[in-house]
């Protein structure tokens, strides 16, 4: 198992660094940048120890590898307004400031200040330059100047979820070991589970000792589900339909990038850091708005060996409900074709719940469907932007 990065200062070292930070110039961060600092510091983004410099940035954009050849598919960069970046010097230690909560976040030693081509990055990482793509739009808003260097975390931000779910990689690895699991399937989601997701998860349970359901909790596009809905709903689902001793639920607090196949690889590397040995890659993984071919996320793994990734991708077909078979099927096992299938997608579930309709039992467990509709009546289901 790979070694986890830990850039969190504790005890006397944290007290000393916090006192030193008070005399340093501040670099204000938005909430997503703060989460990036925290994910670097707690090992979620291992092997990164800070925000990437130009060599790693260009290598990731071009080849989906860091400059030393390590697989990595999405640049973790700190975009800073050009005028502000001009105030800093290489070698300077700066105080990373959580602007949203008006408090300290951490420290960064400036190793490089460099310019990026936003259009080029959009094309290489997202496969499009259209601002309608939510990941492209957020990246474009960040500007062309980046500050790079190693970070230390001083203060954790207020968690987006209850502490019982906000677990760092070391905690999840320890729990996996405590449960005696030798093999673990990781499942990425940004919404509450429907029967297609349940099918994929239970394929993973057939193949490995345990399942980590690991919903992404962070910035997402309007229409995706709120954190409390995902976690509360999954607890309900697990209570009735999963073997309790073989499933673990935790949240991943980071921004969604919607980068399709590159994000499928990114998500797998993250789950490796959390102790997973296998990772489910389904249909249109991390896709949005038809920007990616439905199994592009499968093919991206052809560029890497399992040994260098440290995790086995489970490239599974997208499930549907077959009216003829009267069960959940995939195109790999059912002959009845699109005319016989009812597509099960988060998009359709969100649309039905938004209209006040209860998704049918072919698509979603009745308990979960009723839970969503009741929550929707008080407007507490979806991000609104």
List the topology elements.
Blueprint: H1 11-21, E1 26-29, H2 31-41, E2 50-51, H3 54-63, H4 82-85, E3 93-98, E4 103-109, E5 112-115, H5 118-126, H6 134-141, E6 145-153, H7 169-179, E7 184-189, H8 195-207, E8 210-215, H9 227-241, E9 247-249, H10 261-273, E10 278-281, H11 296-299, H12 306-309, E11 312-315, E12 320-322, E13 327-329, H13 337-340, E14 341-343, H14 346-354, H15 366-377
Parallel strand pairs: 1-3, 7-8, 7-10, 8-9, 10-11
Antiparallel strand pairs: 2-6, 3-4, 4-6, 5-6, 12-13, 12-14
Helix pairs in contact: 5-6, 9-15
User: What is the gyration radius calculated from CA atoms?
Assistant: 21 Å
Indicate the CATH class of the largest domain: Alpha Beta
What is the chain-wise order of helices and strands?
Answer: HEHEHHEEEHHEHEHEHEHEHHEEEHEHH
Distance between the termini: 38 Å
User: Which regions contain 5 or more consecutive residues with pLDDT less than 50?
Assistant: none
What structural class should be given to the helix and strand makeup?
alpha/beta
The count of β-strands is 14
* Second CATH tier, the architecture of the largest domain: 3-Layer(aba) Sandwich
Name of the CATH superfamily of the largest domain: HUPs
């Amino acid at each position: 198992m790979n070694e986890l990065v830990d850039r969190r200062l504790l005890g006397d070292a944290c007290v000393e660094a916090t006192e030193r930070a008070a005399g340093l110039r501040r670099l204000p961060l938005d909430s997503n940048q703060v989460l990036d600092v925290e994910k670097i510091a707690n090992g979620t983004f291992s092997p990164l120890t800070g925000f990437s410099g130009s060599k790693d940035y260009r290598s990731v954009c071009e080849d989906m590898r860091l400059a030393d050849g390590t697989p990595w598919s999405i640049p973790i960069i700190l975009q800073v307004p050009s005028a502000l970046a001009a105030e800093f010097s290489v070698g300077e230690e700066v105080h990373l400031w959580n602007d949203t909560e008006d408090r300290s976040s951490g420290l960064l030693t400036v190793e490089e200040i460099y310019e990026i081509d936003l259009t080029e990055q959009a094309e290489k990482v997202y496969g499009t330059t259209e601002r309608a793509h939510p990941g492209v739009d957020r990246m474009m808003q960040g500007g062309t100047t980046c500050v790079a260097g190693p970070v230390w975390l001083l203060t954790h931000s207020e968690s987006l979820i209850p502490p019982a779910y906000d677990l760092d990689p070391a905690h999840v690895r320890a729990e996996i070991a405590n449960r005696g699991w030798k093999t673990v399937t990781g499942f990425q989601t940004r919404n509450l589970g429907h029967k297609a997701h349940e099918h994929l998860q239970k394929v993973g349970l057939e193949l490995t000792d345990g399942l980590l359901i690991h919903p992404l909790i962070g910035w997402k596009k309007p229409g995706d589900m709120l954190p409390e809905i995902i976690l509360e709903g999954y607890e309900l689902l697990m209570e009735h339909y999963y073997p309790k001793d073989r499933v673990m639920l935790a949240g991943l607090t980071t921004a969604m990038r919607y980068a399709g196949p590159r994000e499928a690889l990114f998500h797998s590397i993250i789950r490796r850091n959390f102790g997973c040995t296998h990772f489910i890659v389904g249909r249109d993984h991390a896709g949005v708005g038809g920007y990616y071919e439905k199994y592009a996320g499968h093919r991206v793994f052809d560029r890497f060996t399992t040994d260098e990734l440290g995790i086995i991708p489970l490239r599974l077909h997208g499930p549907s409900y077959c009216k003829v078979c009267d069960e959940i099927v995939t195109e790999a096992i059912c002959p009845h074709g699109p005319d016989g299938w009812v597509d099960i997608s988060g998009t359709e579930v969100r649309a039905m719940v938004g209209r006040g309709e209860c998704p049918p039992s072919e698509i979603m467990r009745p308990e979960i469907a009723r839970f969503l509709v009741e929550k929707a009546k008080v407007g507490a289901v979806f991000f609104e932007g």
